Amino acid sequence: MMLSFLLSLLLSLSFLHHPPRVRSSPLSELDALMVLKAALDPSGRVLTSWSRGADPCAGDAGAGGPSSSFEGVACDERGRVANVSLQGKGLSGRIPPEIGGLQSLTGLYLHFNALGGDIPREVGSLRMLSDLYLDVNGFSGEIPPDIANLTNLQVLQLGYNRFSGGIPRQLGSLQKLTVLALQYNRLTGAIPASLGYLATLKRLDLSYNSFFGSIPATLVNASGLEVLDVRNNTLSGHVPAGLKRLDDGFQYANNPELCGVAFPDVRPCPTVYLDRPEPLQPDTLLKKNIPESADLNSSCGKAHCPSRLSGRNAGVVLGVVAVVAAIGFTVTGFLTLSWHRHRKQRTSSSSNVSDERVRAGRVIGNRSKRAASLISLEYSKGWDPLAKGGGGSAFSQEVFESFMFNLEDVERATQSFLESNLMEKSSFSSVHWGILRDGSAVTVRRYAKMSCKSDEAEFLKGLKLLTKIKHENLVRLRGFCCSKGRGECFLIYEFVPNGNLLQYLNAKPGSGKVLEWPTRVAIIIGVAQGISYIHEDKGDKPRLVHQSISAEKVLLDHWNNPLLSDSGLYHLLADDVVFAMLKASAAMGYLAPEYTSTGYFTEKSDVYAFGVLVLQILSGKRVITPVIRHGVEACCFEEFVDENLEGNFSEAEATQLARIALLCTQDSPTDRPSMRTVVHELNTLIGNHLSP
Ligand SMILES: *[C@@H]1O[C@H](CO)[C@@H](O)[C@H](O)[C@H]1NC(C)=O
Ligand SMILES: *[C@@H]1O[C@H](CO)[C@@H](O)[C@H](O)[C@H]1NC(C)=O
Ligand SMILES: *[C@@H]1O[C@H](CO)[C@@H](O)[C@H](O)[C@H]1NC(C)=O
Ligand SMILES: *[C@@H]1O[C@H](CO)[C@@H](O)[C@H](O)[C@H]1NC(C)=O
Ligand SMILES: *[C@@H]1O[C@H](CO)[C@@H](O)[C@H](O)[C@H]1NC(C)=O
Predict the structure, then answer these.
(1) Is the CB of 209 under 6 A from ligand 4?
(2) Is 149 touching ligand 2 by the criterion CB < 6 Å?
(3) Would residue 94 count as lying in a domain?
(4) How far, in Å, from the CA of 295 to the mean position of ligand 5?
(5) Residues 453, 602 within the same domain
(6) How far apart are CA 449 and CA 457, in angstroms?
């Protein structure tokens, strides 16, 4: 940093005092090249011609001639380094931030090497750069959004590396980009719709990654596009028919969840979508069936049931039942809507601590001092960020520390992670059941250090946030523990005995898992209250978005009260893990359609997921089939209320809940009510019906 600052200072000074001479080879470029040499070629075996005694641009600076004594370096007529071409040289180092000192660089060709590490963000300061070839190396980390500052960039080749994270949406501003090749990486997230605005884009290769969500319809408008390769991802939803014009240039194999009419080997979309006029239009079909919100008199019932779905559609419907988890994926519209709107997450650190929290703190308080000294995060600065000036007062620090467990406690509680206490296991975490010394039952979530945010300050901020979340409909965090020795972090939550809601969906009659109607209503209200609390700015808890609401995240206690789990968790976890969670919710149909175009979550995406959850609870089904959806829209109980209830439900309540579910799952986030409104409606509507 310092060096590059000095370099650029020197640069600008030399410009001020010496008008650029034709043959000038500023010292700073030589310095930058020497740093580059040391970093790219740590063994010093390859770039032997790069030596400090020589002038990199001393040769014939005219076009065409051998312009440098430095291997692979080409200079422009002003005597400045224009190209660095070191492809296939067996380089095994990294790109240093000092690359930013080569301000006249137009081409950087480092492909076919064994380079690793991140792309330094300073690459984004090379304003003249038009070609960046880093493919076939071992680069990792995320693609820095700073690359979007390269307004002259025409070719970006990053394929065959180990890049992770998403495509920075900002790349959609590279107005000269013709090739974007990202194949064979570990990239994930949505394909930014902004790429469709690149009129110059000819080739977009995203194949062999883990992208999910739908193919943005905007790509149809990228008039220069000739090749679009999305093979081997986990894309879903409607394939824009306009892509047919690419013929063989459009490659989409091995994305089993894609659907559409225009492509022979892609299965048809569920009828709900076929009926839609245009994927990008606001959904008129849905709207006309939604009763006005004040229309309390309307009631569903037999009278509303049309003669099922017309024969035209019936065959398709039966065939696609399994696909329909994709509800809501098809529409990639609303692009302009929240394009530049950033999710504001105020992580206020006011030191107000509510009485409740103080009490919670005291329960496990006496342990805190001892635990604090035993805690050892594998971070260089230990707990410093929270010690002073970390945003919290000494008092909230004490509360925070009261959440600290030591490894001994965790091991004792879980009987050293006894296999028989293992409740679930995924690639990122495992959950063990256990009993604390005070006799209370808990679940212990284990995360490998690699799954946690690597930035210490961010991780601790996330932990701190978690300790501030407290509501009767959210699973309570008892504490946490990070062990350097094990390379793991543990989150200790209260144990919730009756399992998760998913286990009650698709229940067989007589299995004891068919929830009664009043229980279902109470679950819906409870979950709504929990989400509403998360969305609010309460005391020192900032507004949050849950991001992964699903039936699996709704746990039921002894009385079948719902408790939402994993709130705020994504603040702790590495982006890879968060993306994996998103992918899971996408596969289950909870992902709001706007995620594809905006790439981030708002409270309204939680509202969408809640709406899907309500449909699941009403129907008792895991997958919302077109028949169920249709039943809800047409207000026909027979089609959407769980038949296992054998008619034991309140028609008035079912009507209102169906209406709320529809409002919440509208395609446009602005059309969805806030969670606060939903809670209000639930309380008034349902409350009225419940009271005798
Ligand atoms: C840099 O490389 C580009 C692409 O190969 C080439 O067109 C350009 O002439 C080169 N510049 C110099 C100064 O050699
Ligand atoms: C790129 O542009 C952004 C926004 O203007 C700026 O914050 C960032 O520092 C720039 N990056 C580089 C490497 O110049
Ligand atoms: C594509 O371009 C047409 C005409 O300019 C426009 O009406 C349409 O909204 C665009 N579609 C997208 C997805 O941007
Ligand atoms: C691509 O996807 C297919 C089908 O899922 C799978 O069999 C194949 O191994 C994948 N190829 C790669 C290179 O991941
Ligand atoms: C509701 O229905 C009742 C009886 O069906 C009717 O008398 C009343 O006027 C209706 N109210 C509204 C607001 O439509």
Answers:
(1) no
(2) yes
(3) yes
(4) 10
(5) no
(6) 15
- One domain, residues 254 and 166: yes
Check if 208 has its Cβ closer than 6 Å to any atom of ligand 4: yes
In angstroms, rounded to a whole number, what is the distance separating the alpha carbons of residues 669 and 602?
A: 9
**Cα dihedral value 651, 607, 568, 523, nearest 10:** 0
Per the prediction, the chain carries an average pLDDT of 78
Q: Which range has the top average pLDDT, 34-38, 262-266, 293-297, 378-382?
A: 34-38
Q: Which residue has the tokens 């209406």?
A: 659
Report the b/e string of 179-206 with b at 16+ CB within 10 A: bbbbbbbebbbbbbbbbbbbeebbbbbb
Do residues 483 and 571 both lie within one domain? no
Tell me which ligand sits closest to the C-alpha of residue 299.
Answer: 5
**Within a domain: residue 338?**
no
Facing residues of 107 across strands?
83, 131
232 lines ligand 4 (CB under 6 A): yes
Q: Convert the pLDDT of each residue in 522-545 to its tens digit.
A: 999 999 999 999 999 988 899 999
Based on the fold, state whether residues 484 and 514 are members of the same structural domain: no
What domain range includes position 476?
A: 379-495
Query: Does residue 462 sit within a domain?
Result: yes
Question: Which of the listed residues 285, 311, 334 is the one where a domain comes to its end?
Answer: 285
Residue from 191, 197, 218, 221 whose mutation best tests the ligand 3 pocket (most atoms within 8 A of CB)? 221
Q: Please report which confidence band the pLDDT of residue 257 belongs to, taking 50, 70 and 90 as the band edges.
A: confident
Cα of 324 to ligand 3 centre, how many Å? 27
- Whichever domain contains 662, its CATH number is 1.10.510.10
| Domain-located, residue 43 | yes
Q: How far is the CA of 296 from the centre of ligand 5 (A)?
A: 9
Q: What is the tens place of the pLDDT at every residue in 466-481?
A: 999 999 999 999 999 9
380 C-alpha to center of ligand 4: Å?
40
Residue 323: both structure tokens together: 């696909």
Q: How many domains does the chain have?
A: 3
Please indicate, yes or no, whether residues 621 and 690 belong to a single structural domain of this protein. Answer: yes
Residue nearest to atom 4 of ligand 1 (CA): 107
First to last CA, the chain: 70
